[in-house]
Amino acid sequence: MTSLTKTRWVYAFGGGAADGDASMKNLLGGKGANLAEMSSLGLPVPPGFTITTECCTHYYANEQRYPDDMKAQVEQGLARVEELTGKRFGDAVNPLLVSVRSGARASMPGMMDTVLNLGLNDQTVEGLAKLSGDRRFAFDSYRRFIQMYSNVVLDLDHHMFEEILDEHKERLDVTVDTALTAEDWEKVVADYKKAVAAELGSDFPQDPQAQLWGAVGAVFASWMNDRAKFYRRMHDIPESWGTAVNVQSMVFGNMGETSATGVAFTRNPSTGEARLYGEFLINAQGEDVVAGIRTPQALTKIARASCRGRG
């Protein structure tokens, strides 16, 4: 007898509720399970949805094709995020932007790919500029998205973009990214797009739906990249586990001196001491911490005092 039960590929979270919980790590990955748990606890988690590890397994077992009913479930998940945020994906006036992140059941830091600010294009960046009242922030976010998406999804070398940015900074006689104005970032964006067109023979993708599916495919592909395979071998993580994909509405650490990005732990990851530990960068996004261009600040007063004492 054939089962008529549909496989569930997408689990929503946010708005004080979630379809999953912390016990579903094998299906939702570590990140997705914890996002669901925190949402259920009423923590202010930006809404989103998780595409399951089973979907990744299906993808690789079926010549890199998605399950037939997955697209409709993703559309439903996105519609729920729109409802919770009051924004619309691809809307030129009130755009919803999302991050797309991997999330295996075992932690694999830095091994797989992430895309931030997805949904930006030549129209939505203008909407973001008006909504935020900060044109500089909008175009800073757009240049970050173009660089990250081009590297992760379009397989273009990120050094190409770094060289373009360095040329602009040299021309302007500045050393830090935060010194660039809105007009400066607009010029950087224009040069980034020219570079993409020259490399690919086609323009940077402007359709947010195409951007989303490109990023989902890139996260699944990153499960099989060389560094992820090496990490799995080193840590005895089975290839069959697959990775989940977490699509989540964006919050911005690069909106000025009152915004920041960072990491926080309930224990010191080096010593195991049961004390709040973390670090942050003001007016930045997550990749700035990873890139090591700027030195983050310690999260707690005790740690900052300790750093000053050593200095």
Give me the secondary-structure topology:
Blueprint: E1 10-14, E2 17-18, H1 25-40, E3 48-51, H2 53-61, H3 70-85, E4 88-89, E5 95-96, E6 98-104, E7 114-118, H4 124-132, H5 135-152, H6 158-172, H7 182-200, H8 208-222, H9 226-235, E8 243-249, E9 260-265, E10 277-282, H10 286-291, E11 297-298, H11 301-310
Parallel strand pairs: 4-5
Antiparallel strand pairs: 1-2, 1-3, 3-8, 6-7, 6-8, 9-10, 10-11
Helix pairs in contact: 4-5, 5-7, 6-7
Task: Give a written overview of the molecule.
It contains eleven helices and eleven strands. A six-stranded antiparallel sheet has the order 2-1-3-8-6-7, sandwiched between helices. It has 311 residues and is an alpha+beta fold. It is globular, with a radius of gyration of 20 Å.
List keywords for this structure.
11 strands; globular; Acyl-CoA Binding Protein; 311 residues; 3 domains; single chain
Biggest beta sheet summary: 6 strands, antiparallel
The number of distinct structural domains comes to 3
> Order of helices and strands, N to C?
EEHEHHEEEEHHHHHHEEEHEH
Q: Radius of gyration, Cα only, in angstroms?
A: 20 Å
The shape, in one word, is globular
Low-confidence parts lasting 5 or more residues at pLDDT below 50?
A: none
Q: What's the pLDDT, averaged over the residues?
A: 91
Distance between the termini: 72 Å
